[in-house]
Amino acid sequence: MSLEFGIHLVQKHRHKFTTGVMHSFTGKLDEMERVVALGLYLSINGCSLKTAENLEVLKRIPEDRLMIETDAPWCDIRATHASSAYLDKIPTTEAVLYAPPRKAMERFEIGCMVKSRNEPCTVGQVLHVMASVRGDDPEALAETVWKNTEKIFFPNDLVRHDSV
Length: 164
Hints:
This protein is mainly alpha-helical. The chain has one domain (about 5-150): TIM Barrel (Alpha-Beta Barrel), CATH 3.20.20.140. Helix content is about 40%, strand content about 10%. The protein is built from 6 helices and 5 strands, in the order αβαβαβαββαα. The protein has helices at about 5-15, 30-35, 50-60, 90-100, 125-135, 140-155, and strands at about 20, 40-45, 65-70, 100-105, 115. The strands form 2 sheets. A 3-stranded parallel sheet has the order 1-2-3. A two-stranded parallel ribbon has the order 4-5. Strand 2 (about 40-45), helix 3 and strand 3 (about 65-70) form a beta-alpha-beta unit. The longest helix is centred in the last third of the chain and has 16 residues, at about 140-155. The mean pLDDT is about 95.
């Protein structure tokens, strides 16, 4: 389904739901603005960080509308993506957590990723790239994304982090 058609469907049926997430957002600036105007959240993954234009759109997404995902086993950050240049900025101690060694499926070991497959642990890469591109602190951005996630998926169970 095209993003344009997705936006059309949301506009047509917006009165039937309170909120939502535009999954794996890869749209242009005007599309992002239309999605935000509909009161939706935008979920970012490796495919969302593919081009220089995608990175520019990411900078403009309102903080209170940002979400994060891996879309594993797809949508990893690849060497051909504009975002791959930001992977070198991830501290080494964290980089090994977000991209452990990869092995062919038939040689799989605990603690390794399956070769040619995105894994949930790469969400840290997505977070660090998002923070670098936006000029945000990764921990602060993680907290923001967590709060946005609570708002949309657990609105009755909001945790007060300042009291934890």
